Amino acid sequence: MEDNRTFLTRPYLPPLEEFLPYLSEIWESRQLTNGGPFHQQFEEKLRDHLGVGHVSLFANGTLALMTALQALRITGEVITTPYTFAATTHALLWNGIKPVFVDIRRDTCNLDEELVEAAITPRTTAILPVHCYGQPCAGGRLQEIADTYGLKLIYDAAHAFGVTVDGRSLLAQGDLAMLSFHATKVFNTFEGGAIVCHDLKLKQRIDYLKNFGFADEVTVVAPGINGKMNEFQAALGLLQLEHVDQAIAARMAIDRRYRQALAEVSGMECLPAIDGVRRNGGYFPVLVGPDYPLSRDQLYDRLRQWQIHVRRYFFPLISDLPMYRGIASAAPANLPVATSIARQILCLPIYPDLDPPTVDRIIDIISSP
Ligand SMILES: *Cc1c(COP(=O)(O)O)cnc(C)c1O
């Protein structure tokens, strides 16, 4: 039976025959992991592609973030957003750090920089914002606050692959940025991740930490973890780099189609595109407002009836999960914007080979529900 369902995303893969030569090389060399030749090449090519200082590859984004917090010796409290994927805040708990939630801005769904200062206490050591949907945080202002209070600035940039602001990589901001190459992301290596940083000594420490703390055969400098990316992932990453610009262009064509058509639908709001930002089309979020004939959840169900499996990203808020809701800053009264957006948000399907007739069908259903 044919599967007619459309999902939020469908992982992009290059043609299989292009990957086979890489596999042959791995089978021949028997270098499967531990910083083999593909790992080294991918790290360099990725650095050049992104136009950043240094890259350290990881088995996945969550391990990268956990290691980033260790590398910068973050302790105490960290100011972060409730409007994100669970991994952002879980990485804090795994490091024994207390998350302090600050509300978001309605126009970007990112941490509201003007509310950050009021949340700083003597125990605060860092700010951990997320470039939600690849929309840039207010980097200049956040850096200013971090500098004033002597805080580290760590970005969860899992959604921000390839995003630039005035021609400069978004990943160049802050002390470091974490990337995810999970199957559902704009750029994937099945699973994978990276830390981008600008200081060679910091990269060195990150590289020790992701390899159990080994500095050489007999020297262990820190209680590290196994966060290494393997040769299969790195080889796929090398090949994906050749295709990713085209994949992003295909996503952005869908973004334009949705944006243009949904502007006509009353009660339906798209997040504004920001001047000077090259986006990556990773997500297509819409806000289902009170003027729309259906509630967000009714529209979610209606689309499902038509085999369109959209997602409520991000709902529920992280601050509402059982392991966080006891924290004072997790109270909904402290997070009114995030609470309201989580009730209105819907992410529509977007991926490189989503065909225009399906996009039009989704638009039709939303236009006349
Ligand atoms: C995907 C994602 C992560 C986790 O990355 P993994 O590679 O899946 O471990 C973290 N933060 C955000 C915002 C994400 O979307």
Sheet having the most strands: 7 strands, mixed
Order of helices and strands: EHHEHEHEEHEEEEEHEEHEEEHEHEH
- CATH homology group of the largest domain: Type I PLP-dependent aspartate aminotransferase-like (Major domain)
Shape: globular
Relevant terms:
369 residues; Aspartate Aminotransferase, domain 1; Aspartate Aminotransferase, domain 2; three-stranded antiparallel β-sheet; binds pyridoxal-5'-phosphate; seven-stranded mixed β-sheet; 10 helices; alpha/beta
Secondary structure blueprint with pairings:
Blueprint (H helix, E strand, L loop, with lengths): L5 E2 L8 H14 L7 H14 L3 E5 L2 H11 L5 E4 L5 H9 L3 E4 L22 E5 L10 H11 L2 E5 L7 E2 L2 E2 L6 E5 L12 E5 L2 H10 L4 E3 L2 E2 L10 H32 L5 E3 L6 E2 L5 E5 L7 H10 L2 E2 L26 H9 E4 L7 H12 L2
Parallel strand pairs: 1-16, 3-4, 3-5, 5-6, 6-9
Antiparallel strand pairs: 2-10, 7-8, 7-14, 9-10, 11-12, 13-15, 15-17
Helix pairs in contact: 1-7, 2-7, 3-4, 3-6, 7-10
The chain binds pyridoxal-5'-phosphate (PLP).
The site of pyridoxal-5'-phosphate (PLP) has 14 residues, from α3 and α4.
